[in-house]
Design brief:
single chain, alpha/beta, Arc Repressor Mutant, subunit A, D-Maltodextrin-Binding Protein, domain 2, 3 domains, nine-stranded mixed β-sheet, two-stranded antiparallel sheet, 14 helices
């Protein structure tokens, strides 16, 4: 048999493969034509294309019908596998079964989500999908969107500044709204009653920021009233901040769920901020290429199931 090149491959289509298998099964061109709904000349033409392609007669005409050559007998199981594979791809992906699936899921999240959502998600998945592993990465906002676009992560959870036109690239589902509070040690005098902007400006603040000093909504609200926040300490992570404020006079701005969930562990209390627009929305974001992926749809459902009220 001669070598098959790329030009030859372009001459192959499913019709001639099915004609070949039909001829191997029935050994009569008329029977193949009847089964496939083709004319007999069309079947003969398909067989001719196969002969030209392989440089072999493939089927010899005999009184009783078509007799396959040695090469045709050798090709039959290979052609059958090709046709079966094509059929499977047209049937679509196999049904996703979380109890038997085995894979690694990469999730981008930052301090808040890493401490409040990911632990619950891991615990849930260990019960229902022991062979699905979670790899969490400390990615936030634009960094997380870049990682999604590059395929380095499967899902990101957090607050996002979506760039213009991102609806054509990402699929974002809102998980819940959140708002900020001011937190500190249990007996902190500032947190015994309602807060004012003047009191907040006079307090000693701790800022959670992995990238150094930043201005946030608290600073903006204070600035509009002629105040400035007194930031004395900056740490990169949530638990470092909570460990510091529970034993100092510093206060820290946190999402309410974080303050509430860690009140006993770190012996802290909190009060609402007297600031308009202090609410933000947490989203779960996937790349649009994964919008219909059963695994990612299931993962999003699991994320929603472990979110606290």
């Amino acid at each position: 048999m001669r070598d098959i090149n790329q030009i030859d491959l372009r001459l192959v289509d499913t019709t001639i493969l099915l004609v070949f298998l039909g001829a191997m099964r029935h050994r009569k061109a008329t029977a193949v034509a009847r089964e496939m709904g083709l004319t007999q000349p069309a079947v003969s033409h398909a067989l001719k294309r196969l002969r030209n392609l392989y440089g072999d007669a493939l089927f010899l005409r005999r009184a009783h019908g078509l007799e396959p050559t040695a090469l045709a007998c050798e090709l039959e199981p290979k052609v059958r596998r090709i046709v079966r594979l094509i059929s499977e791809t047209l049937e679509g992906a196999e049904e996703f079964n979380p109890s038997t699936a085995a894979t690694d899921l990469k999730i981008g999240a930052f301090d808040y989500e890493l401490t409040g959502i990911i632990p619950k998600l891991v615990a849930e998945l260990r019960k229902v999908s022991p062979n699905i592993n979670i790899h969490a990465f400390p990615l936030h906002n634009i960094e997380a969107l870049d990682a999604l676009a590059q395929g380095r992560i499967d899902l990101s959870i957090g607050y996002f500044d979506f760039p213009a036109g991102s609806e054509n690239t990402f699929v974002a589902q809102e998980l819940f709204p959140e708002h900020y509070v001011l937190a500190g040690r249990r007996d902190h005098p500032l947190l015994s009653g309602d807060l004012t902007l003047a009191q907040i400006a006079a307090a000693n603040h701790l800022l959670i920021s992995p990238h150094g000093p930043i201005r946030d909504l608290v600073d903006h609200a204070l600035h509009l009233q002629g105040y400035k926040r007194n930031i004395q300490t900056i740490v990169p992570s949530l638990f470092a901040a909570l460990s510091i404020v529970e034993s100092s006079d510093l206060v820290v701005t946190l999402p309410e769920r974080v303050a509430r969930d860690n009140a006993r562990r770190f012996d802290i209390v909190h009060q609402p901020l007297p600031i308009e627009g202090g609410t933000f929305h947490l989203h779960a974001v996937r790349h649009i290429r994964d919008a219909n992926n059963p695994l990612h749809i299931w993962l999003l459902q699991k994320v929603r199931s472990v979110i606290p009220d």
